[in-house]
Structures are given as C-alpha cells and as structure tokens.
Design goal:
The protein contains 18 helices and 33 strands. By secondary structure, the protein is α+β, with helices and mostly antiparallel strands. Helices cover about 30% and strands about 25% of the residues. It is globular. Among the domains are: about 5-35 and about 95-315, Beta-galactosidase, Chain A, domain 5 (Distorted Sandwich), CATH 2.70.98; about 700-778, Sandwich (Maltose phosphorylase, domain 3). The strands form eight sheets. Strands 1, 9, 10, 11, 12, 14, 15, 16, 19 and 20 form a ten-stranded antiparallel beta sheet that branches. The protein has a five-stranded antiparallel beta sheet with strand order 8-7-13-18-17, with no helix packed on it. Strands 21-28-29-30-33 form a five-stranded antiparallel beta sheet. The structure holds beta-D-glucopyranose (BGC). Beta-D-glucopyranose binds near residues 365, 366, 498 and 643. Keywords: Glycosyltransferase, Transferase. Pfam families: Glyco_hydro_65C (PF03633), Glyco_hydro_65m (PF03632), Glyco_hydro_65N (PF03636). GO terms for molecular function: carbohydrate binding; glycosyltransferase activity; hydrolase activity, hydrolyzing O-glycosyl compounds. InterPro entries: 6-hairpin_glycosidase_sf, 6hp_glycosidase-like_sf, Gal_mutarotase_sf_dom, GH65_N, Glyco_hydro_65_C, Glyco_hydro_65_M, Glyco_hydro_65_N, Malt_Pase/Glycosyl_Hdrlase.
Length: about 775
C-alpha cells in the first residue's frame, strides 16, 4: 500500500512503541484480537478476522463495544430474596465495523468461509494505527492479499477509520467487494467461565432511510439506542452506494490483475448511547450529525488530528524503562490500553476488561478507582475527574441501593455495574464487598490531594465522601458485648479476597472505612470555614462530625497477638490452610473447580486483601510488621485474581526483596502480552495494567504523599538502566528520572515546589533539574 496517501509520515521511529505480532509469544487468534483491539474510551473494536462477521464456523470473537451501551436481562434466581438485583447488565456486542465481504466466482465470504492463510499485524502505539495483512483464499483457491490500516480517533471520539488495500496474488479476474452490515449480534459465546461474558441482549436495527447507511441500534430491555453511519473516505478508490440484499451498502466489482491493488476506505461515526425516547425525538438530527461527521473526510486529516491528541497523551503519561526492550514495550502497551479504555464523558468509567472484550459483562468494579485511577489522577487529571463524575452521577442509584438493604443513611455503590445499579447476582462475592464505598471515597481524596481541585471537592467530591461515610455509621455498630465490646464493628462483609466471604471485621474494609470517616470529618471541618452553606444543604452538623471521628477512632482492626500479624477478619486465623502445594496446576483458578463453600472453609486468598491496606497506608506499620504481614499472606495467596501481584510486588520492593519484587512486576507488566492468566481472549486485565503503573511509580519510583507534597525514595532493579516518568501535581508538571545512581527531578511547569527525598526537604525551581545521588555512603 502506498503509505504516503494515507499518512505514512507518522511512521514509527521507536521500536518499543511497536507491537509486532511476530515478536509476541501468543499466537491464539482470539487473544490477538484482544491485544490489537483499538479504543478511545468511547468505543473499542476487536481486531478480528474482518471477513468473519456473525459466522460461527470461525473461531474469532469479532465485535465493537461502546462504553455505557448495554442491555438488561432478567436474573432468574431459584430463591429470589428481597434486595437481590433483578437485572443483569451486559455491554452490547455490536457489529464489527472492520467487516468486509468478498465475492469471487459467485461465492460470497459471508456465506461460505474464506480461509485466512496467514496474518500479520503491527500496532503503532505512538500513533494508534493498526496495520494488518491477511492472505485470504477463496473456495476456488484464489488468493487475495488484504492490507488494512485502522485507527479510532483520539480527536473525535465518535470516529473509526479503516482503509483496505486488496490485490489478487495468483489470478487475474473479477473481485466484488461489499461493505454492509447484515447482522446485528455476533454469535453468543456460551462459556462456562463465570468471569466470561454474560448473555447479551438482542439488538434491533433500523435503517433511517434508503439513501444512507445511517442505522439505529436499539437494545430491547434497557431501551438505549445508538446511531451508526459510515461513508467512503475521500482520495481513494470509491465504492458505490446502492441497496444490496435490501441493505444500504457500498460495493464495486474490480477487475484485478495479479500484482495491482485497489485501495478504499471508510469512516464510521459511532454515536453516543441515548435513551430511546430522546433518540426518537431527535433521530433525524443525530443521523445528520453522524453523516456530516463522515462526509468528505480523508484518512490523512483525521489521522493527523488523532495523532496530535495521542502525542499529548504520551507527552504527559509515558513511562520509559531502559535496559529491557520487551518490558518497555509491555509497559507502553499497558498504559496505552488504560488510555484506550477510560470513559471521559462523565457518564462512564473503565470496564474490568477495558473496551476490548465482553468479559465480566463490561462492568465497572473497584478496579477503576483503586487500580487505574491513580495513573489518570497523576498524569491525565481531566480523565480522572470524569471517572469520578460518573460515580457522582450515580449517587441516586447508590442511595436507593442502601435503602434496599435497610440502611437508612448514606449510599452504597454497586459492586459491579454499568448504569449505577447493582448487577451482581452472587451477593457473597458481590454486594457484600461494601468496601467499594470506601474505595471510591479514597479515590476522590487522592484526586483532590493531587490536583488541588477545590472546585471539584466542593461541587462533587465532598458529597461522595460524606454519603459513603454515612453508610458506615448506619451499616456498622458499636459492639454490645464480646471481645470488641464498645468498639465500632462492621459485620457480614466481604473484603477484596473473594475466597473468604461474609465475615466480621474484614481488616481492609474496616481500615478503609476508618479512612473514609476521617476524611469526611476532615473535609467537613475544612469546608465549614468557607462553605457553611454547603454543609447546611447536606445536613452536616458538629454532632455528625463527632460521630464520624468517634467511630473512626473506635474502629476494630483485628490483630493476632500470638502471631503478631494483622488478621484478615475476626475468624480467619482459626481456619485450616488450603494445601496449595498439593493442588495440581490444572485446578487453578480454584474458583472454577471448587464450590465456593469449600474455599471459604480454608485460609486461602484469591488476591491481596489485608496487605492491600499495608500498601495503601504505609505509615500504619513498622517494617517488621510489614514483613510479618507479607510473609503470612504471601504464603496463603494463590493470585487467582489478576489484581493481586502488583500489590505484592510493591510490598516486596518496600521490604527490599529485590528478586521477588522484580518477579511480581514482570508477571504484572507482561500479563496480557503473554496471556499468563489464560483468559485474555475475553479482554485485557485493565486493573492489572493500572497495577503496572502503581508498581513503577509507587514501587520502584518510590513515590508517596507526605505532608501535603511528594516524597521520593526510588530504587531500580539491577536489570534496568533507568526509569523515567512524569507527574502532574498541584498545578505543576514534573519529570522524574531514576538511574542506578541518581534521581533527577525537573519542574517543567508551574511555580516552585517543595518535595521530599527520603523525607528530607528539597526545593524544585522551574527548569532547574535537581540531581540527587542514590549512592549510599557509609
Ligand atoms: C477480582 C475482583 C475484581 C474483578 C474484576 C475478580 O476476579 O477478585 O477483585 O474486581 O475480578 O476485575
């Protein structure tokens, strides 16, 4: 393909931004579809076989996902208790916009499978452009080379752009090319894996008129609609619009001579989800907007605009590791995917699988706030703000949920959701994870402390912190008798470890709730000075502030005095240990092989739980205490959740266990590129990708917040030459470079900033790099 006609000037210089298929250890096509998925927070498109469509005689899982576009399906319970969620939500799997139909010798690729003989792909993460080459064989043995270039726009979130170049390699003759969307749903995947997708609803499709491709997709039960339209790109060979197979289509028959190629392309407008009623009233306007967006567009102009936005992303958010090119690429892949996945319209968040697959139903979990938000807060605070705004927008549903659970004050956020309502059918590992409340409050507090965005605190953030704090006072209580008598206890909850459920005083939950209560009191006092009206409007008075403080102060944090280890919960230490060493490899993850009650019987952790609070609150414990907690919990943790390793890695680093820290980190950083969890076909592990950033910055970079500013205490693994990253902090922008022997801090914009290095004050002045030696002198 002649790249210069389609924007070849952005061809990559740096190899570590290139994801070349030949260099990946994974060859499974469904996994590759995920890895090469493109997204921009609004939509995500799997990089599937473009000829597959809805044909189930091929093994790909093609599809497009639009953040926030989901359907509901009734949950059928054998025993339907009060307060159980009645509807499951699942992100809709939309038709693949890459889809193309060939017709050769009277046979169409949408009717009989054309074999894909070979595939090659390269994703340029610097520019967001995916280049793919497919060798396709028709049933009459005619071979075609199909080259595709595609990107989702980072400039106009509704646009997806794809070009095709087609040449005949072993024949001269006619090839008909058709671009149309005959199917609306891809085949439903009936998986036995509870983590995989849930049944999605059936979409309905209506074409707006006979003259354009504008089509309306509507969900049956959630009554949402979405407008999609596509038109040919200018400046390339043109396919002609006509009605084919009763569908608005583009098509053309080319007489191909072996060796010559034709090039054509399309731009898709994929609209925002709207309630059906609104769409019905404004349908023509939305259709016109979609068509206008796609009229007279060239690849070049759209691509250049998108690249500019992506340049800005890398400028603030790149992390460079020197000394290991494979790792450097893996890190960039993770950061790129976080950016590709994060909703930025204030109405959506980040699904657990990003926008790369239907795994976990496309739901948002605590993953977004606890694992991914820190990256955005420190490097793309506008996105962090939008993600928190989504939670604020769902406060009414969270309030309703608390009432459904008979909690008369405060709110309870859902464990898993798209629309703000609880979508988890298994409450012991779902609704009972009430720590979600404190997680969201924690993320708000971090955002406010990093950005100094007081306006957000006043208008949005404080209400979240307040309402979540109120929940604890209503849900927990002061123990009437027993060992915790007089202290604040929180019973019948599930912590992050989903192999232990419905326990009393889960350490992590209580510690986070304590933090939530302390913050509510702190911000209430702070805001009292200038925003008394706000406090009055929210009904906060001194008595309530005192209640928050008292409950926080009296919060039970279970501790085993014999072992001198934090207890996961009141009863955890009395249980027998699960025989991890004697469990065959093929019985992991345990959740797919054992009834939950068997797992609940033992001390066995799916993921970091108690040590997650050691990670978040480093000042809580001495190094010796951390060492005891780490050793104890590491021995009983099987890491069946992808959220686990990053946390253990950072703690290993803090304990100077260099080999272990490095091992955990490498598993984290390369998890999807090596498909080490075995289920990347269902989508990337987005929280783990956030965990990569946490490990780099909070771990090896040694970043902590201290006395209202930043403290650095970095230390690189021996395998690396340098680690470079940037941070935004309180209206400043700074670059951090760590080598084996030095730390260099450069203030790139903003006024002077005081920071700490190993708790010693340092001052940063604009553009005057501060170089600190890391060589310990004795
Ligand atoms: C983990 C949860 C996580 C969810 C979605 C589960 O396997 O145990 O902590 O929120 O996956 O990633």
């Amino acid at each position: 393909m002649n790249l210069s006609t389609t924007g070849g000037d952005h061809l990559p210089a740096d190899d570590s931004f290139q994801l070349h298929m030949q260099k990946l250890p994974v060859k499974d096509s469904s996994v590759l579809e995920t890895l090469y998925g493109l997204g921009n927070g609004h939509m995500g498109i799997r990089a599937s076989n473009p000829l597959q469509g809805s044909q189930s005689n091929q093994d790909g899982q093609p599809g497009m996902f639009v953040n926030g576009f989901f359907d509901l399906s009734e949950i059928t319970y054998g025993e339907n208790y009060p307060g159980f969620p009645q509807n499951a939500q699942a992100i809709a799997e939309l038709p693949d916009p890459r889809y193309l139909i060939f017709e050769i010798d009277g046979e169409r690729s949408d009717e009989v499978a054309f074999d894909v003989k070979s595939v090659d792909k390269n994703l340029d993460m610097k520019t967001g452009r995916l280049l793919e080459i497919f060798e396709v064989i028709s049933p009459s043995n005619k071979t075609i080379r199909l080259t595709m270039q595609s990107f989702v726009s980072h400039d106009q979130p509704n646009l997806f752009v794809v070009t095709y170049s087609v040449s005949a390699t072993n024949f001269d003759g006619a090839v008909t090319i058709i671009k149309q969307h005959r199917y609306t749903n891809r085949q439903i995947d009936n998986s036995n894996d509870v983590r995989a997708d849930q049944q999605t609803g059936q979409l309905e499709r209506t074409f707006i008129d006979n003259q354009t491709t504008a089509m309306l997709l509507t969900t049956r039960k959630s009554q949402l609609s979405l407008l999609i339209a596509f038109q040919p790109l200018d400046g390339l060979d043109q396919l002609k619009f006509s009605i084919m197979d009763e569908l608005p289509s583009y098509g053309r028959t080319f007489d191909l001579t072996a060796g010559l190629n034709v090039q054509f392309g399309f731009v898709y407008s994929v609209g925002d989800p709207h309630p059906l009623m609104d769409m019905s009233l404004n349908r023509d306007r939305y259709a016109k907007e979609a068509l206008d967006r796609t009229t007279s567009q060239t690849f070049r102009a759209l691509y250049d605009a998108s690249c500019r936005q992506l340049d800005a992303f890398w400028e603030t958010s790149d992390v460079e590791v020197g000394g290991d090119a494979t790792l450097a690429r893996g890190i960039r892949f993770n950061l790129f995917n976080l950016y590709q996945s994060a909703g930025r319209d204030g109405l959506t968040s980040i699904p657990a699988k990003g926008l790369t697959g239907a795994g976990y139903g496309g739901h948002y979990f605590w993953d977004a706030e606890m694992f991914m938000l820190p990256f955005f807060t420190y490097t793309q605070p506008e996105i962090a703000k939008q993600l928190l705004t989504f939670r604020a927008a769902t406060l009414p549903q969270a309030q309703q949920r608390a009432r459904e659970l008979n909690v008369q004050n405060g709110v309870l956020f859902p464990w898993r959701t798209i629309n703000g309502e609880e979508s988890s059918a298994y409450y012991p590992a779902g609704t009972a994870q009430v720590h979600i409340n404190a997680d969201i409050a924690y993320a708000v507090d971090t955002y406010v402390r990093v950005t100094a965005d007081e306006d957000f605190l006043v208008k949005t953030g404080f209400n979240i912190i307040l309402e979540t704090a109120r929940f604890w006072l209503s849900y927990g209580h002061f123990a009437q008798s027993g060992p915790h008598r007089g202290h604040f206890v929180i019973d019948d909850v599930t912590g992050p470890d989903e192999y232990t459920t419905m326990v009393n005083n889960n350490y992590y939950t209580n510690r986070m709730a304590k933090n939530n209560l302390i913050m509510a009191a702190k911000y209430a006092k702070l805001l009292k000075q200038q925003h008394q009206d706000l406090l009055e409007r929210l009904g906060v008075d001194n008595a309530e502030i005192n209640d928050f403080e008292y409950a926080a102060d009296q919060m039970v944090l279970p501790f085993d005095r014999d072992r001198r280890v934090k207890m996961q919960d009141d009863s955890s230490m009395a249980k027998p240990f699960w025989p991890i060493d004697k469990t065959p490899n093929n019985q992991f993850p345990l959740l797919l092989h054992f009834h939950p009650m068997i797992l609940y019987h033992y001390q066995v952790n799916k993921q970091a739980d108690t040590v997650m609070s050691d990670f978040l609150f480093p000042a809580d414990q001495s190094t010796d205490q951390l060492k005891r907690d780490f050793n104890y919990y590491e021995a009983i943790t099987v890491h069946d959740s992808s959220l686990s390793r990053a946390i253990f890695g950072v703690l290993a680093h803090r304990l100077h266990l260099a080999g272990k820290a490095y091992g955990y980190f490498m598993d984290t950083a390369l998890m999807d590129l090596t498909n080490s969890q075995g289920n990347t076909d269902a989508g990337v592990h987005a929280a783990n990708m956030g965990g990569t950033w946490l490990s780099l910055i909070y771990g090896f970079g040694g970043l902590e917040q201290e006395r209202g500013t930043l403290n650095f205490d970095p230390k690189l693994p021996d395998q690396w030459t340098n680690l470079t990253f940037k941070l935004k902090f309180k209206h400043r922008f700074l670059a951090v470079r760590v080598t084996q022997t030095s730390l260099t801090l450069t203030l790139l914009s903003g006024t002077d900033l005081s920071v700490f290095f190993r708790h010693q004050p340092q001052r940063l002045t604009l553009n005057q790099p501060l170089v600190i030696s890391l060589i310990e002198t004795t």
